Here is the input.
Amino acid sequence: MKNVNEQKKYNHLLLDNKVCVIVGGGSLRSIGYATAELFAAHGAKLVLLDLVMNEEKAKEATNAIASQIGYTPEIICIPCDIRNTSDCEKAIAEAVAHFGTIDCLVNCAGIVKSEGMLSITEEAYDLIMDVNLKGTFNICQSALKIFAEKQAGVIVNLSSLSAQRGGGLVGGTHYAASKGGVISLTKAIAREFAPKNIRANVICPAMIETSMLDGLSEQQLKDVVSGIPLQRVGKTVEVAGACLFLASDLSGFTTGATIDVNGGIHIH
Here is the structure.
């Protein structure tokens, strides 16, 4: 039988009083929102960033989280275009000014477009790359300035199964390439900043119940599901669970890792 001290060791919130910046939480159907809700349930203080964030969306997210966890979390919501370095700098500065520091960055922001290689215009290519890869770089760089100074911090970036298998599901070659860059970027951050006690890991989801599936017909979705060993698409909270693991001390010796959340559709 465990003694009282041993029992207490396991009876704590995984992110108690941690300040977590989550990018891409403007929609209640998003992985970013699901991550914010789960983190709040584990005691985190939240900073929600999104290009479309406004007073209405901030209130919607805050109320939704409060209704799920039973109280209103400490939360600030900031509009931020991660394509813009000054936006990222200002958002992180505002978070630090409000909470005193930041402890974790989870970047769920991303856009997708499905089109053949020969149909991709320069404008479409630049937009995908600017949001998915450059935007990830920008917000990571801004957060890392704080993490490097305090000699501690955690980064979780979202990539995609498309980066691992060369597309083939949702998203064109530019999308797959941008998400492949996110994997490499995260590994490089992990290697460079590990001596400063900063960890960085990446998650590669497959088909998840978000607005990204809205463009698929019922038959297309059925065809996709038939190829998934678990025979269903994933839930946003299941990706959020992987984010929670990587953000918490449970993964304290994990950095530079790629975590698959794909129902077994890609096993390697």
